[in-house]
């Protein structure tokens, strides 16, 4: 069988707390299926052909992104790259960091999706951003190669996002209000014009008096940076956690007690952890350079083994949304035709979650659904499991209960239940879920589909007299 390859142009656009940037990539895809079967597409090569300038994210005020100016930035970068909208076949627009919490984030996203065809369009809260950054930095691959716990800390302007991996699988996430632009300094006058309230509290806790209007004192900024580093050391289980650590949590931290062996860094500050030019401490009108220098001298990189990141500041920029067309198995459940469904994020439980039994499935699902929360509100997601190969009647009953109990938050918001199973049990599992819910929620349960965390799917209208549904899997592709 002759394999057919195609090269497509993809774009990744990342709108973060501090910076906006984009990357164009040539993605080579190959159809590995025969001419008589459904196409099965895999990525065989990727080449970044253009990296944009790093732009400060324009804001109307502290609560609103300036959508028009963001669009102008993206349009200008398209022009610089010599790329037209028609050239781009696929891509992703992701709003991350504190920017995702702005009032008009979704409006800006939808506005930008017009820069290409069928984009992955998503607003990433702190946990999802941690996952994207960790994979972008390559921490998942390091954990697989080293058979060890590896943490990535993505340090941007407003937050530090933690993603912990083991054997290539995501284990835990966390986020702290620690970043390079939580103190802002005017480049001309060298006066401080912004201090994040929590950082002012941190400064007070170590006896440092700092106020807006003061000329930036390097010694004071360095003491604050060292205190931030101490909190980061607590976050990765190197120190006993303090009340200040709790105050600086954005939403949650990774659990205590892990034996973490390796660490990677991404985000804007990472360039000053892996680099060594500290000659201009306030180069960017903030404390990012000083924070990077203090991390580079800390036990974070001395006790834990520092590994190089595949990407630093661009780790959260998605290389592509690779479209893989598939067809569900023929034993599926859908209680109503609510299709088509677009850009549904995937939450996949790990093999370890499933192997530990039904209680573990319930607990892990309840915990991991928080990855997709924005402003403490849950988003619609599809839960993916491998599922047992030859389950008994009792197994299906217990699996259904575990999934329902784990999805309580989604059910309370009256979302339909979406379950994707690799093994061929979707019909009986979906029917059981629907029955145990007293038919109070729509249930879509499909099988013979393999997806991963970080994927998004579209589900089309049923085919073959309703026996199967077409599925488009959109895989976020990283330079790692």
Automatic annotation (TrEMBL):
Q: Which spans of this chain does the record mark as coiled coil?
A: none
Q: Which Gene3D superfamilies match?
A: 3.30.420.40
Signal peptide extent = none
| Any one Pfam family match given in the protein's UniProt record, by short name | EutA
The cross-references to InterPro entries, in alphabetical order and at most eight, read:
ATPase_NBD, EutA, FtsA/MreB
By its UniProt entry, which PANTHER family does this protein fall under?
A: CELL DIVISION PROTEIN FTSA-RELATED, ETHANOLAMINE AMMONIA-LYASE REACTIVASE EUTA
> Under what name is this protein listed?
Ethanolamine utilization protein EutA
């Amino acid at each position: 069988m002759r394999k057919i390859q195609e090269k497509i142009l993809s774009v990744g656009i990342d709108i973060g707390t501090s910076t906006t940037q984009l990357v164009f990539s040539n993605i080579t895809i190959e159809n590995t299926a025969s001419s008589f079967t459904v196409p099965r597409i895999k990525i065989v090569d990727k080449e970044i052909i253009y990296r944009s300038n790093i732009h400060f994210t324009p804001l109307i005020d502290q609560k609103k992104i300036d959508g028009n100016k963001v669009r102008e930035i993206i349009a200008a970068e398209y022009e610089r790259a010599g790329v037209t909208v028609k050239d781009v076949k696929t891509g992703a627009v992701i709003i991350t960091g504190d920017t995702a919490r702005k009032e008009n984030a979704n409006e800006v996203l939808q506005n930008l999706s017009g820069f290409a065809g069928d984009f992955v369009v998503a607003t990433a809260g702190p946990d999802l951003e941690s996952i994207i950054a960790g994979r972008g930095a390559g921490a998942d691959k390091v954990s697989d190669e080293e058979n060890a716990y590896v943490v990535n800390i993505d340090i941007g302007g407003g937050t530090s996002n933690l993603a912990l991996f083991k054997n290539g699988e995501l284990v835990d996430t966390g986020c702290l209000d620690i970043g390079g632009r939580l103190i802002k300094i005017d480049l001309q006058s060298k006066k401080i014009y912004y201090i994040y309230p929590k950082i002012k509290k941190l400064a007070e806790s170590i006896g440092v008096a700092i106020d807006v209007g003061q000329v930036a004192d390097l010694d004071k900024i360095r003491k604050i940076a060292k205190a931030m580093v101490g909190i980061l050391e607590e976050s990765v289980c190197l120190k006993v956690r303090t009340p200040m650590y709790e105050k600086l949590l954005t939403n949650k931290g990774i659990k205590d007690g892990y034996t973490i062996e390796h660490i990677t860094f991404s985000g804007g500050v990472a360039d000053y952890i892996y680099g060594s030019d500290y000659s201009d401490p306030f180069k960017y009108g903030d404390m990012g350079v000083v924070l990077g220098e203090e991390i580079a001298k800390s036990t974070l990189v001395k006790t834990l083994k520092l590994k190089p990141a595949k990407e630093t500041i661009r780790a959260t920029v998605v290389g592509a949304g690779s479209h893989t067309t598939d067809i569900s198995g023929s034993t599926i459940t859908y209680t109503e035709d609510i299709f088509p469904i677009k850009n549904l994020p995937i939450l996949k439980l790990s093999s370890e979650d499933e192997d530990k039994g039904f209680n573990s499935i319930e607990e892990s699902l309840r915990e991991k659904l928080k990855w997709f929360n924005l402003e403490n509100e849950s988003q619609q997601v599809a839960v993916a499991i491998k599922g047992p190969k030859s389950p008994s009647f009792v197994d299906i009953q217990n699996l259904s209960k575990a999934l329902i109990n784990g999805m309580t938050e989604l059910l309370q918001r009256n979302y339909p239940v979406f379950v994707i199973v690799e093994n061929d049990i979707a019909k009986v599992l979906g029917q059981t879920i629907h029955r145990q819910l007293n038919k109070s929620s729509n249930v879509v349960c499909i099988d013979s589909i393999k997806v991963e965390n970080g994927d998004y799917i579209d589900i089309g209208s049923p085919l073959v007299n309703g026996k199967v549904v077409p599925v488009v899997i959109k895989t976020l592709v990283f330079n790692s």
